[in-house]
Amino acid sequence: MDFQEIWRKCKQGANVFWQKFRSGTKIFWQWIKPYLIQFHHWRKRIWKKYHVNKILLLLTLVGVLVMSVYLFFLAKSVNVETLQSSLKQSTVIYDKKNEQAGSLYGQKGTYVESDQISSYLKDAVVSTEDRNFYKHHGFDIKGIARAAVGLVTSGHIVGGGSTLTQQLAKNAYLSLDQTLERKAKEVFMAIEIEKKYDKEQILTMYLNNAYFGNGVWGVQDASRKYFGVDANQLTLGEAATIIGMLKGPNIYNPIDNLENAVNRRDTVLSVMAETGKISKEQESQEKAVDLGAELNDTYSSADAGYRYPSYFDAVIDEAVERYGMSEKDLLNKGYKIYTSLDQDYQKQMEAVYDNNANFPADAEDGAMPQSASVALDPKTGGVQALVGRRGEHIFRSYNFATQMRRSPGSTIKPLSVYSPALEAGYKPDSILKDEPQSYYTAKNYDGTNQGEVPMYQAVAQSLNLPAVWLLHELGLNKGYNKVEEFGIPLSKSDKYYGLALGGLEKGTSPMQMAAAYGAFANEGKVYEPHLVTKIIDSTGAVIEDNSSPKYEQVISKEVANEMTSMLLGTFSNGTAAQAAPAGFTVAGKTGTTETNFDANKVNDQWIIGYTPNIVISTWLGFEKVSATHYLSGTSGSEVGQVFRAEAESILPYAGQYSFDVADAYVTGGQVVAADQVNQEGQNASNGQWREELKEIGGKASEGAASFFEKAKAGADKLMEKGQELWQQYQQGN
């Protein structure tokens, strides 16, 4: 059968189907039509009987009333009192000494007062954007009607129709979405602004808050960016060019689109002449000016105030997540944000991260090993320094120091095993089993075991088998609950013996681990880690205050000291010996996690070190682990070198300190006061020296006595022999 025959039969079948479909539809309509007519008559009777039209009208009016009340209270809730002050001031970050550390950049330029703004700018913006500006009370009925018509005809709110006051409200408080709700909010807020400020103040705020392309906000910075002069020195044509950009800053700015900018300038000049702000002669004269020849960029970015990018990013994150503030408000409303920042610590930490020699080499494909560090005050929980990642900074990019969730490896052992063991009565010199167990498969790093080992050595050497055995002896619940008490979030699946080795489903961050180890440095107290201590708005009102943070007593001072005595051994004789900072004594722990494709390759490396007045928590690893993205060394040799560089540069600024207890390796596992061990060591040394001196003197005395005895005996024999010879001589004569 050829194709034409197939096609003929398909058409024939389709025609038959269509005829049957039409016939069936006609029969169905004839059947249902009487029922529809009955339903229509019934609906009309019910509609009239129950006054449905009136009910719908009433519901509509109630809806309008409710919406109006909502918008009224919304407008009232916005503190327009602070609008002017917030536009004038930048958000400033202060350090722990209340000294200015930098500022946050945002939609804000250099604020200038009305008398520093050219009258040409004011006339141009009123002529083109809001001709009735000096007559209305914040909103324009015609503009609102135009927006409503646009909604009906196009299905969405079209641009235009907003007064300058409405645009100021939108820029300061609202999103840029073209919705009816936003438009309504805009109107009510504009009314409130008009009640508080006069027209000149509103116009000044608007011109200081408008965007002019190329990252420039406000007419002062725009004047500098495009013409190299202040806002009060602009010519008529230059002012018309700047105001022309308001319609589309990226389309009409003269640096990127000179031809568009010229055409838009000429349009603004024509409108100014039409409204009587300038004469026709002025219009013609300015249109003849070569705009390209006037361009001169003398603007310098204010972004240099964003001095410590990782730390400032984390400050914004904390204010948004913990206090419910918006990023836009933080960047633009002139807050004063007080923090725990130590600028000396931060500079030193950033210098370490700027030096690639402190880190392992990049992978073959160029992927950079990532890293993050936190320096925290254990007495307050305040984060004093923070670096969230290596490489070029991207505003509020992923921060490994605060947002990361990775398994902490063996750094969790003091939290999940050894602290609860000390609470249960174990001591640093308690003997633990160092052998494989049937209930959980594990091995020590080097694959060997000793059968038995004292606890302080198991801690310092980061042995896995004793940790698993001890958690089994204590019970999973004790270890699991204790980790949560230290502030480390766990999943239900983490309640297994791998908890002893840091195998967590979700993991933790360097900041959380630093706060947890703060308990060992500060008598068992854990503070919630934080950067922000206080936030003050542009009027001076305190809106958030965390200057007196609360703590949880998770372990006793005695247990904290016992733990510290063992953790000192990590740096003196254990896995962090290579990472020990020269000239400083620190306690802490290392940790590694294996990749899921090769047990000999490392996914994460951790090291946490502390003194009584600072905790430094550092992580190293690839952002995405793969067969070509992994670490191969030990924590002491790789992340340990990062930590060592940090500690050696930061600790000189940390002040004098001394631990309360001595290294358990020095005392054989006994918990002894540090000064007592030093004194006893000195006394023992002096005593030994005296004993050695006495022994030397005794031996010398014994040697001298022996010498004289032998000399005397020799002299006697010599005398005897002499007498004998003398007698023989006399007999011979």
Automatic annotation (TrEMBL):
Glycosyl transferase family domain span: 104-272
Domain Penicillin-binding protein transpeptidase: 374-613
Transmembrane stretches, start-end: 55-75
Keyword Cell wall biogenesis/degradation (UniProt): yes
Family annotation (SUPFAM superfamilies): beta-lactamase/transpeptidase-like, Lysozyme-like
Alphabetical GO biological process terms: cell wall organization; peptidoglycan biosynthetic process; proteolysis; regulation of cell shape
GO cellular component annotations of the record: outer membrane-bounded periplasmic space
Reaction catalysed by this enzyme: [GlcNAc-(1->4)-Mur2Ac(oyl-L-Ala-gamma-D-Glu-L-Lys-D-Ala-D-Ala)](n)-di-trans,octa-cis-undecaprenyl diphosphate + beta-D-GlcNAc-(1->4)-Mur2Ac(oyl-L-Ala-gamma-D-Glu-L-Lys-D-Ala-D-Ala)-di-trans,octa-cis-undecaprenyl diphosphate = [GlcNAc-(1->4)-Mur2Ac(oyl-L-Ala-gamma-D-Glu-L-Lys-D-Ala-D-Ala)](n+1)-di-trans,octa-cis-undecaprenyl diphosphate + di-trans,octa-cis-undecaprenyl diphosphate + H(+); Preferential cleavage: (Ac)2-L-Lys-D-Ala-|-D-Ala. Also transpeptidation of peptidyl-alanyl moieties that are N-acyl substituents of D-alanine
InterPro entries per record: Beta-lactam/transpept-like, Glyco_trans_51, Glycosyltr_51/Transpeptidase, Lysozyme-like_dom_sf, PBP_transglycosylase, PCN-bd_Tpept
PANTHER family tied to this protein: BINDING PROTEIN TRANSPEPTIDASE, PUTATIVE-RELATED (PTHR32282), PENICILLIN-BINDING PROTEIN 2A (PTHR32282:SF32)
Protein name: PBP1A family penicillin-binding protein
Originating organism: Enterococcus dongliensis
